[in-house]
Every structure is written in C-alpha cells, then in structure tokens.
Write a structure and sequence with these properties.
Length: 540
C-alpha cells in the first residue's frame, strides 16, 4: 500500500511539476513574445531610418542584456567586402563604433552566400571559434568577445547585418535568444525596406513637385515672353478647344484669359472662318504636319479687319503623341501695304527707267555691264541685250580708255563720280559724247558689288558748243577788222581837220559855223580871227 501510495504521490508530483514547468514556459514564452511584439511595435512606429535603427539597437541591447547592438550596412558594388556601422547602442565602458568603416576581403567570398540564405552566426568565444585571422582582427578591433549576427534580407539579397555583441566576457547564446534576434531581424528588414521605400517615395514626390514647380516656372516664363511679342499665339487641345492664348491674342479679341479657357473659335471668329479654323486644327492633329496659312482677313473685336499670316504646328508629348496645336499669327496689314507701295514704286521706277532718255546702267566688279535700259538703243544703236556682259571698255574711244579706267578705279575704292565727260563709240562708228554720274554698290556685309549710274548723251550739246565757239571766233575776227577800218577813218578825219584849221588860220577876218540844236542856232565853230575882231577868244 505504501509503495502504491508513494508511486501515486511521485506521479502526482511529476504531473504537478510538469504542469508547473509548462506554466512557467508559457509565462516565459508569453513574456518573450510580449517583449518581441514590443520591439516590433516600436520599430514600426516610425518610417525614419535613423529612428528605426536607434530604437532597434537600444531595445534589443536592453532585452538581451548585451554590451553592444549595431546595424551594419554593406557598401553597394563592393561584393560585401566593405561596409560601415550606421547605428549602435553600446555601454559607456566600451568604445563606440558608429560610422566605423570595415574592409573584410574574406566575407564576400566565404560568408555572404550563406548569410543570404538566412544563416545566423552565434559565436560564444571568438578565441575558441577557429575564426580566420582577418575576421578575428576585425572583431578584436571593436572589443568583441562573443558575437551574434543576424542577416537583414531583401528577398534573397543580403542587405545589412544586425550585430549583437558581448564585449566583456564569452556568452553562450541560447536558442530563444537566437530566435528572438532572428525575428527582430526579419521585422527590422521589413521596416527598413518600408522606410527606404517611403523615403524613396518622398524623394520621388519631391522631385515630381520640384519638376512641376520648374515646369510651372518655365511655363510662366514662356508665357511672359510670349505675352511680350506682337504676334498672336494660340494653343488648342483636341476639338479645337483653347488651352492658352497670349496677350496679343486676348487684346485683339477683347477677351480675358479666363473667358478663353475651354472654348472654341466660334464665339469670337467670323462664321465663315470658324469652320475652316477647325478643319485646319484637325489636319494638324491627324497628319502631324505644320500648316502655313497665307494672309487672311480677321475681324478685330472693334470691327476692324486686318490681314494675318498663320503657322500651325503640332505639340507632342514624351511618347510622341499629338496632344495640342500651337498657332502663331503675324499681322501682315502694314507689310502688305508696304509691299503694294513697293510694287507701285517699282512699277513707277521701271516706267521711268524704260522711258528715260538718259542711259541707266550697272556694271559688276570686273566692269561688265549687268544692266542697261532701252535708252542705249538711241545713244549707241545697240539693243540692251547686245551690251550685257560686255566690259564698258569695249565702247570707249582709244584716247579715253586710260582716263575711264582710272575713274573706274576710283569707284572701286568707294568714291562717287559726277558729271564726268568722256567719248564712246556707237554701233555705226560715230563718236558719242557722254556725261556720266556713278556710285559704288555694296552688299549687306560691305562687299563691293559693282557700280551703277546714269549717262547723258551730250553730243548735240558738244556740237552746238563747237558751233557757238566758231561763231564767236568769226565775230571777234569781224569786230577786229571793223575796228581797224574805224581807226583808219578817224586818222583821216583828224588829218583833214588839222589841214582845215591851218587854212582857216591864214584867212583874214573870222570864219563861223552855225548849227541848230533843239530849235536854237548856236555857234558850232569859229576861227581864231574872231579874237582880233571882237576881243573874244574862239574858245569863249
């Protein structure tokens, strides 16, 4: 009976002991699970990497009563041979390792692949673990005596390490501690991934916002530039809906930017033009071609009609799809009027050139005629085509050739020549006297092109001048001959008068000559004998 009683007591005690052990294990497991969930909860509280690292290191070190807990990051593209400590929590009596760089040429070749498969290293005593010299050297550098290393993975990629150190003495790492560290590592890897994904997302959002701000700034800048030009600029989307119009466009139609948003041309364009505008937009959208539209009348908001020339071009997105069109219209009213004025002026000038009796000409830099008007037919007897591309020297008389070449050299030097007289040979061999006026011609860059000017036929004038000179010479000859005759006559009269006075002086008494002047008779002559008779001299 006693044995049975004792056996029953022992059995009961064993059952109670087993129950107590299970109860203790359950409580221990619950506490560990509670601690693990607490760590995981704190890890997940933040998306900031620094906070996650610091929280993990601090919580794990305290829960496992370790000397140091650190997070080690591998440097990309180093094949897991280089890295640095990015976070740690360490007791004050041991040297900090935060920011320390580590180079381990053995790790990449010998250990990285195993860690990538989830291997956890638990070293009780580094001096008894038969570690490689290079590995041992690194551990001693950080005062490590016992080491528990958990990989932090992204899928199959080894990313970081969670390192738990005992620095003062060896430590036999328990299975529950290893499992605890593994669980923390798994959740830490997820938290880091989420934090980095969040950071990457924030950076992308910041880049997008920055890009959008730059785009807005750029758009505003270009809008300001386009608002400052006189051309009308109109941007349209599908179905010819207006997206944006510059200030010149808004002013022309008397509408604000808000009033133009989303409408088509119909509200302000002439009905006759609206359908054509929409067809033009559809053509650009469908073909992707640039459309040039010649001058067309467009009515302003105040009723004035002006001529505009337009170019419509497609706008494509990054994929090459046409999303909008842009039309640039230029006011051609004044230009068209100027062109008409130029045409009218050219017509008048052409008429003047064609009907001018003076020769109008141009020669190139070599002295060859590039243009002559019809007057050459009357001056030289040549048709204009017969003189083109011939040097002017072909028509110069031999005695004038040297002088004319010297004058042409002056024109080449940039001088102008006015009223220069020379002689040319007509087609029939006659000598023509011409008076030239000429100026040099240059292009926009200052290069010499040739000369141009006029030539007046002064042959008849020269002939008249010669005849006048001949007549003047003949008149002078006749005057000189008549003067000589008069001198002879005056000389004869003087001799006759002297002879008469001599005779009168010898006659006794006095001789008188009376003349009637203005109805009165007066003494015109008396001899010297009057003094003997009357006592009055002949002069008195």
């Amino acid at each position: 009976m006693f044995h049975e009683y004792l056996y029953q007591e022992v059995t009961d005690l064993r059952q109670k002991l087993a129950h107590a052990e299970r109860e203790m294990q359950s409580q221990t497991w619950f506490k560990k699970l509670q601690a693990l969930m607490g760590v995981i909860g704190k890890i997940r509280e933040s998306l900031d990497l620094e906070t996650i690292f610091k929280t993990t290191a601090t919580e794990v070190r305290q829960l496992l009563n370790a000397d140091r807990v650190a997070v080690y990051r591998f440097i990309p593209e180093s094949d897991w041979n280089d890295g640095e400590v990015v976070s740690e929590d360490v007791l004050p009596q041991y040297s900090p390792s935060l920011g320390a760089k580590v180079h381990d040429h053995c790790f990449g070749e010998q250990f990285a692949a195993n860690y990538a498969k989830g291997y956890v290293q638990a070293v009780t005593d580094i001096y008894k673990a038969r570690l490689s010299p290079c590995h041992l050297k690194i551990l001693k550098r950080f005062q490590i005596r016992a080491n528990l290393v958990v990989p932090l993975l992204q899928g199959q990629h080894l990313w970081r390490l969670l390192c738990i150190h005992s620095c003062g003495q060896p430590r036999d790492w328990q299975e529950d501690e290893i499992e605890f560290a593994r669980q923390v590592g798994d959740h830490l890897a997820v938290a880091i991934y989420q934090a980095e994904l969040h950071l990457q997302t924030q950076r992308q959002l910041a880049e997008i916002e920055s890009g959008q701000q730059k785009l807005r700034d750029s758009e505003q800048k270009y809008h300001q530039i386009l608002d400052s030009i006189g051309d009308m600029v109109l941007v349209k989307g599908p179905q010819s809906k207006i997206v944006w119009a510059n200030q010149a466009f808004r002013d022309y139609y008397g509408m604000t930017e808000e009033e133009l948003q989303g409408i088509v041309d119909a509200p302000f364009a002439d009905p006759d033009n609206t359908l054509q505008y929409i067809k033009d937009d559809a053509f650009v959208f469908e073909t992707g071609q640039t459309l040039q539209i010649a001058e067309e009348p467009v009515r302003r908001y105040d009723g004035e009609v002006r001529l505009w020339s337009t170019v419509k071009t497609p706008i494509r997105n990054q994929d090459g799809h046409i999303t909008m069109t842009v039309g640039v219209s230029r006011d051609m009213t004044e230009r068209k009027a100027a062109e008409e004025a130029v045409k009218s002026s050219e017509t008048k000038y052409r008429s003047l050139v064609e009907t001018s009796q003076d020769m109008i000409w141009s020669v190139d830099a070599t002295g060859r005629y590039t243009f002559v008007n019809p007057a050459v037919k009357y001056i030289y007897g040549y048709e204009p085509a017969e003189m083109l591309d011939r040097p002017f020297c072909d028509f110069v008389t031999p005695e004038q050739a040297e002088k004319d070449l010297a004058v042409f050299a002056r024109l080449l030097a940039g001088e102008s020549v006015f009223q220069y007289e020379t002689t040319h040979i007509a087609k029939d061999g006659r000598i023509k006297h011409l008076m030239f006026n000429a100026i040099a011609l240059y292009d926009e860059t200052g290069n010499f092109l040739g000369t141009t000017g006029t030539a007046t036929d002064i042959t008849d004038r020269k002939r008249a001048e010669a005849a006048l000179q001949h007549a003047n010479a003949e008149l002078e000859r006749r005057v000189e001959a008549r003067t000589a005759e008069l001198r002879q006559t005056f000389a004869a009269l003087g001799a006759s008068e002297a002879k008469f006075r001599t005779i009168a002086a010898t006659i006794p008494g006095a001789l008188f000559q009376f003349c009637s002047r203005d109805g009165e008779w007066k003494v015109d002559y008396t001899s010297d004998g009057i003094e003997d008779i009357s006592g009055i001299t002949a002069a008195e």
